[in-house]
Amino acid sequence: MRHVLRTLVTATTAVAVMAASAAAAAAPQDAYRAGLQGGLDEVVTAGAIGALAQVRDAHGVWRGTSGVAEVGRTRAVPVDGRFRVGSVTKTFLATVVLQLVDEGELRLEDTVESWLPGVVPNGHHITVRQLLDHTSGLPDVIPTLPLPPDPAFLENRWRTWTAAELVARALANPPVFEEPGSAFSYSNTGYTLLGQIIEKATGKSYARQIERRVIRPLRLDDTWLPGTSTRIRGPRPHGYVPIERQNGGWQLVDYTEMNPSVFGAGGEMISTTKDLDRFFAVLLGGGLLPGHLLDEMKTPGVETRRYGLGLVWRDTPCGVRVYGNDGDALAYQAYSFSTQDRRRQVTVAVTPRFEGDIDAAVYAFVDKAICG
């Protein structure tokens, strides 16, 4: 498979670039690094239990943590901690879909009906592209489930969900809008369907395809798709969810272990800051997709949105555009962005306390990392 060769060459080059950058890091960067640590501390102050980050620039790699790894304990967040990445998984899945497009196994304009006949009402009008860029109009499955702080949320903690169950649950609701492609509405259901389409096209699960095409070639040794496995192996911060008490108020419940099948193709992955940085560096460098499909990945379905085919972008205050994605896995939140030239990258993982505006603090940290 030509993607693997291209990926291996690019990944090897990336290692050499990082080594050279580390060697060049002898110049003092104390003020900048102190600013990064201060920004990460501000994320915790804004409402997090713990946070960890990796920033890569021309001077090398900075890795830092703030807060604690577990409520009620003093143990620091492990700098190499594993965490659930939530919707950052979608960028990996979209990469596989676009590789299959490149190989002629499917087309962006193929309809859902052509791959999954009878599964989706109006499926003959919804395309693979519209599933990728969230313009299908299909309702999102997540809001149909009990969610924190509802105590009923915990009843599903160990439940195994199949893709068919999740899709059927979502499609019991009407579409968000009638004409596919006419508007944007974020839908995890669309990515669950994409996982099924990958299996139909290849005969292998989306997890096997991500492992074979992305994780193994890039040597992302601390990245995996757990399926129904409930544990996060290796060092990790604990994650929590808020649950209402019977006598009023709410409490944080340790939700580090749970059955991630509910997130499925759109959000089940576990990774590290180092691995996510590496993935986005290789992706944006053309190591996983040819240029015309990487351009498609950056093209929004709706001009007013900044969501392409599984890839998000934002413009920083210094005028530099960054590409990546963010993800909410309930007890964990992840953010990973890179400049187009890959000279600056930043990945942050947070275990939220569900108090305050963490997003604003994280994006302030991202801006600090990118703009200096």
From TrEMBL:
EC numbers, comma separated: 3.-.-.-
Organism of provenance: Plantactinospora solaniradicis
Chain ranges of the Beta-lactamase-related domain: 50-350
SUPFAM superfamilies on file: beta-lactamase/transpeptidase-like
PANTHER family attached to this UniProt entry: D-ALANYL-D-ALANINE CARBOXYPEPTIDASE (PTHR46825:SF7), D-ALANYL-D-ALANINE-CARBOXYPEPTIDASE/ENDOPEPTIDASE AMPH (PTHR46825)
Record keywords: Hydrolase, Signal
Coiled-coil regions, chain positions: none
Keyword Hydrolase: yes
Top EC category: hydrolase
Protein name stated in the entry: Serine hydrolase domain-containing protein
Native organism taxonomy: Bacteria, Bacillati, Actinomycetota, Actinomycetes, Micromonosporales
N-terminal signal peptide: 1-26
